[in-house]
Amino acid sequence: MSRRDSHTLTVSAEGIATLQIANGTPLNILDSRTIAGLTGALREAASDRAIRMLVLRGSGDKAFVGGADIKEMATLEPASARAFITRLHDLCEAARDFPVPTVARLSGWCLGGGMELAACCDIRVGTTASRFAMPEVRIGIPSVIHARLLPRLIGEGRTRLLLLTGSAIDGPTAERWGFLEKLVEPDALDDAIVQVAAEILECGPAGVRLQKSLLRSWEGQTIERSLEASIEAFGAAYEGSEPHEYMQRFLEKMQAKRAG
User: Which residues contact residue 241 at a Cβ distance below 8 angstroms, ignoring those fewer than 6 apart?
Assistant: First the structure.
């Protein structure tokens, strides 16, 4: 376990990393110190080849992240405001670029920068008690940086509704809109994370890393270039032994089923 005053990072024997925001605030508010600590932890963990999946979570169940620190933002002027939002941008990019699947454990409130950070994860798991909002306009600033990811997740109109009104939606609505991949009751949240982890661990680790890299590259490519990149990635998978090993296991299982 690695522990800082802004977060803790643990890695299980199976390679499941858990990065928990632990900065002593009930809503896991993102101030500059916490943002820097989380960014550093993500960048350091990204180089660990033993990690097969990352769970990003808040401490406790009151919130994933209740947004950026309004007390700090109230002191900003144009130059320091740009520096602050650049730091939050770097945190979100570290999550987007993480080389293995990232799962956001979304308990309670998920607001502003927290919703942007969640949008940067590959899989979002929330509860019927979760609440989501982009309330920046209510304090006189626009929603920026990774709010840009929301239209492709929930659509242009719904993004406008959230960003222009600052209104909140509940967990079932977030799932219906496409922001959540899984929705469970609050007491089933950790079991749902375990289930996602089990499914990922069944897959070939090198193949999952290739798939994550390919998915990330598709975001900024034309369809034609994406198809070319897919062919390259498929060939690259065979540079190691994993495809043959996993296919052989599959064939043996099928043969055993037929024999049974």
Answer: none
Residue with tokens 């209510």: 138
pLDDT tens sequence across 52-90: 999 999 999 999 999 999 999 999 999 999 999 999 999
The string of DSSP codes covering the chain is -EE-SSEEEEE-TTSEEEEEE-SS-TT--B-HHHHHHHHHHHHHHTT-TT--EEEEEESSSSEEE--B-HHHHTT--HHHHHHHHHHHHHHHHHHHT-SS-EEEEE-SEEETHHHHHHHTSSEEEEETT-EEE--GGGGT----GGGGGHHHHH-HHHHHHHHHH--EEEHHHHHHHTS-SEEE-GGGHHHHHHHHHHHHHTS-HHHHHHHHHHHHHHTTS-HHHHHHHHHHHHHHHTTSSHHHHHHHHHHHHHHHHHH-
Distance CA 107, CA 89 (A): 23
Contacts of 198 (CB under 8 A, 6+ apart): none
The CA distance from 128 to 53, in Å, is 24
Average pLDDT of span 89-94: 98
